[in-house]
């Protein structure tokens, strides 16, 4: 599955706002939005064979088994990622891991309900961008970053 296939749809959800991309150019635009000008501090990214639907839409809600949750802070240059796919054999939830984590990394929200990522999950935004782009291309957990056990929210 790749973002250039017409059968793959990338859905990005910020709060209750849904953004969709089918072409490589549209995916690049969504990745840029998440990293450079996010409309919120946390979003969820899905790669699926159709658009995800909210509970407000006919036939919704509809989501795939896996997702990438992303928190970015363009002002500080940091971000963090949470990945989960309950359709995989181990179904593990993992957070990004920065073995060279900087004590100056900001607190990044894991969700909009007050849970935060551990400081060790903070990555420079270039790494976050690369991981989101990889997920959009493959639909599976990115291999370009390291991972640590995470928590479900």
Report on the structure:
It comes from Saccharopolyspora phatthalungensis. This is Immunity protein Imm1. The chain is an alpha+beta fold and 153 residues long. It has one domain. It has two helices and eight strands; from the N terminus they run ββαβββββαβ. Strand 1 and strand 2 form a beta hairpin. Helix 1 packs antiparallel against helix 2. The longest helix is centred in the last third of the chain and has 14 residues.
**How confident is the prediction overall: mean pLDDT?**
89
Please state roughly what percent of the residues sit in beta strands, choosing from under 5%, 5-15%, 15-25%, 25-35%, 35-45% or over 45%. Answer: 25-35%
Order of helices and strands: EEHEEEEEHE
State the share of residues found in helices, binned by percent: 10-25%
- Overall morphology: globular
Number of helices: 2
Q: Tell me the major beta sheet.
A: 8 strands, antiparallel
Which residue ranges are poorly predicted, with pLDDT under 50 across at least 5 consecutive positions?
A: 1-5
Structural class: alpha+beta
| Total domain units | 1
Query: What is the total tally of β strands?
Result: 8
Roughly how many Å apart are the termini?
27 Å
Q: Which radius of gyration do the C-alpha atoms yield?
A: 14 Å
InterPro entries: DddI
Protein name: Immunity protein Imm1
């Amino acid at each position: 599955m790749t973002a250039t296939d017409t059968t793959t749809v990338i859905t990005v959800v910020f709060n209750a706002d849904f953004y969709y991309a089918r072409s490589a150019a549209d995916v690049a635009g969504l990745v840029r939005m998440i990293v450079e000008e996010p409309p919120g501090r946390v979003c969820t990214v899905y790669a699926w064979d159709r658009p995800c639907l909210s509970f407000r839409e006919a036939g919704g809600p509809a989501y795939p088994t896996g997702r990438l949750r992303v928190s970015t802070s363009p002002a500080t240059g940091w971000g963090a990622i949470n990945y989960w796919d309950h359709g995989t054999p181990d179904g593990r939830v993992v957070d990004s891991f920065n073995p060279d984590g900087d004590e100056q990394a900001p607190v990044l929200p894991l969700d909009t309900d007050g849970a935060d990522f551990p400081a060790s999950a903070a990555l420079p935004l270039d790494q976050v961008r690369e991981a989101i782009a990889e997920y959009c291309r493959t639909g599976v957990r990115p291999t370009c970053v390291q991972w640590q056990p995470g928590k479900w929210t």
